[in-house]
From TrEMBL:
All copies of domain Sigma-54 factor interaction, residue ranges: 202-431
The organism's place on the tree of life at top rank: Bacteria
Biological source species: Pyxidicoccus fallax
Biological processes per GO annotation: regulation of DNA-templated transcription
Identification of the protein by name: Sigma 54-interacting transcriptional regulator
Length: 536
């Protein structure tokens, strides 16, 4: 290799640098910058120019060397005017240019831009990967000498690697765009299904709700933890999603963890993740909800169910934004805004030593209480229209509406299951109704029990109450199953649908929760879906 044309070649190290460059995940700009640095070490030139192919033209995108200037960096070449360049691209082979090439029709590529002597050293290296030709790299030197073949071969290898890296960067960009599109698509779907709207909050006719929405919007702008309280089904999760959407974290993940739905033994790993081998079944590292929510918001639903042992770890994660995954001694940092929701009285849980007071104060910096539906009955017409619309998007049953008599029937009910129960009642009524009007008779709401409100004569007539008569005619006496069913429903109404834990239906009925659940299933209560059944 001519010493005059090659730079400092330290074979192995330079080759390693080149391989590292080709496999790096840098942006295209960074790749070019580092690539040109590499070239200055291995070959002598006064100007290295990278041209990308765009619609039959070579457009300069980067230049390096003593002759590189602003004009060179904005230079474009029309390929039609440079047959030798075109040939190099077609054959996909690097080549040095000689005095002879210039006499074969190629003009001076830098005519009007640089004043290089005729017959100066020049080589072009096509940048090709797979089927694609990305452009060329040209090297020029003011000396009248021809680049020797070994130097051309070396730079050609560099060109191939650079093109491969360009291809990878292009694929990454395409992939990221697809990912963004997928994300947008998922958000659109969520919006279409209704999850992406705050529902009836700001437009509520209830001053209490409007005030709540106003305060929620204000706190959304901060990173302050929010404790959302309210009976089951009042819209705590929906409000939490709205707070996330109104916050500057909206473009980051919103992650939820229902602390009551996960067995206590698995909660720590669900929250903070685990490393391979941390426990039987931990076959690989797994990120917890904290890591998943990094940059975004984590909703801890039913936070009152969090085992006391875990509460200390949560407190530290809240205060220091750090934690250790299960089985790991490495500290992980996550920037997460915490929202917590509960339908149990946490003060009472503190008194019973089931909830740490310090954690409570940390979580309840900004409490928001969602009123039960019976305290915002003025919203019933708007809520029905909204929920029926949302339901129509899922089921295709469009145009359903509650008649004034239907609304009156709904108003007469106490709604222990709140908005969720209302949504379910509307869906059941829609299934049972042929037309589009939901009248009083469309709603099969429990009557005479804990759910019914005594509102004078228009209140639900006890027509569905089982009549226990002295007559021994078949069917006159309710079956044991019917009585059990009614009793369980009544207790579930009292516990607001809660099966587990102290004060839950299972405890009141003196049954194991799993026994109650299977009995409910047998009696068809779960299928009614009227009550929230804690998952196991
Ligand atoms: N503001 C709202 N406007 C309209 N519908 C709502 C609103 N909030 C909640 N809903 C509906 O009420 C139902 C229950 O909402 P959500 O799951 O947010 O309640 P929750 O209080 O978190 O319930 P739980 O205590 O059982 O976790 C959902 O079907 C939801 O679509």
């Amino acid at each position: 290799m001519s010493d005059g044309m090659s730079g400092r070649i330290e074979g192995a190290q330079d080759a390693r640098d080149l391989v590292e460059l080709a496999t790096s995940e840098d942006s295209v700009g960074e790749l070019l910058r580092r690539g040109l640095d590499w070239l200055t070490r291995v070959v002598r030139f006064d100007l290295a120019t990278l041209f990308l192919l765009k619609e039959g033209r070579l457009v300069s995108v980067a230049a390096r060397g003593p002759l590189a200037n602003a004009k060179v960096r904005q230079h474009t070449l029309n390929l039609a005017e440079f047959p030798s360049l075109r040939q190099a691209l077609e054959t996909r082979r690097a080549r040095a240019f000689t005095e002879e090439d210039h006499s074969h029709g190629d003009g001076d590529p830098f005519d009007g831009v640089l004043d290089l002597p005729p017959g100066h050293s020049c080589m072009v290296v096509p940048l090709c990967a797979g089927e694609r030709v990305y452009g060329v790299l040209s090297l020029d030197r003011a000396e009248c000498e021809t680049y020797p073949q070994p130097v051309v071969d070396l730079v050609e290898v560099y060109g191939q690697m650079l093109a491969t890296a360009l291809q990878a960067a292009e694929q990454r960009a395409t992939f990221e765009q697809m990912h963004r599109q997928d994300h947008e698509h998922a958000k659109l779907l969520e919006a279409q299904l209704g999850g992406d709207s705050e529902g009836i909050l700001e437009t509520s006719l209830s001053p209490m709700m409007r005030d709540l929405a106003r305060r929620a919007k204000q706190v959304a702008e901060t990173d302050t933890p929010v404790l959302i309280t309210g009976e089951t089904g009042t819209g705590k999760e929906r409000l939490a999603r709205a707070i996330h959407r109104w916050s500057s974290r909206a473009d980051h993940p919103f992650v939820t963890l229902n602390c009551a739905a996960i067995p206590a033994g698995l909660l720590e790993s669900e929250l903070f993740g685990h490393v391979k081998g941390a426990f039987t079944g931990a076959t690989k590292d797994r990120a917890g909800r904290f890591q998943m929510a990094n940059g975004g918001t984590l909703l801890l639903d039913e936070v009152g169910e969090l085992p006391v042992e875990l509460q200390a770890k949560l407190l530290r994660a809240l205060q220091e934004k750090t934690f250790e995954p299960v089985g790991s001694d490495k500290t992980v940092r996550a920037d997460v805004r915490i929202l917590a929701a509960t339908h149990v009285d946490l003060q009472q849980a503190i008194a019973q030593k089931r909830f740490r007071e310090d954690l409570y104060y940390r979580l309840s910096v900004f409490p928001l209480r969602l009123p039960p539906l019976r305290e915002r009955l003025e919203d019933l017409p708007q809520l029905c229209a909204f929920l029926l619309e949302e339901q129509a998007r899922r089921t295709g049953r469009r145009g359903m509406k509650a008649t004034p008599a239907g609304l009156e029937r709904l108003e007469a009910y106490e709604w222990p299951g709140n908005l969720r129960e209302l949504a379910n009642a509307l869906e059941r009524a829609t299934i049972l109704t042929r037309g589009t009007e939901l009248g009083a008779e469309s709603f099969d709401l429990p009557t005479g029990g804990a759910g019914a409100v005594s509102r004078g004569p228009q209140a639900s007539a006890p027509a569905e109450a089982p009549a226990v008569e002295a007559s021994l005619k078949p069917g006159a006496v309710p079956t044991l199953a019917a009585v059990q069913r009614e009793h369980i429903m009544k207790v579930l109404t009292l516990t607001r649908g809660r099966v587990y834990g102290p004060g839950g239906a299972a405890a009141l009925l003196g049954l194991k929760p799993s026994t109650l659940q299977s009995r409910m299933k047998k009696l068809g209560i779960a299928r009614l879906d009227q009550f929230v059944v804690d998952e196991v």
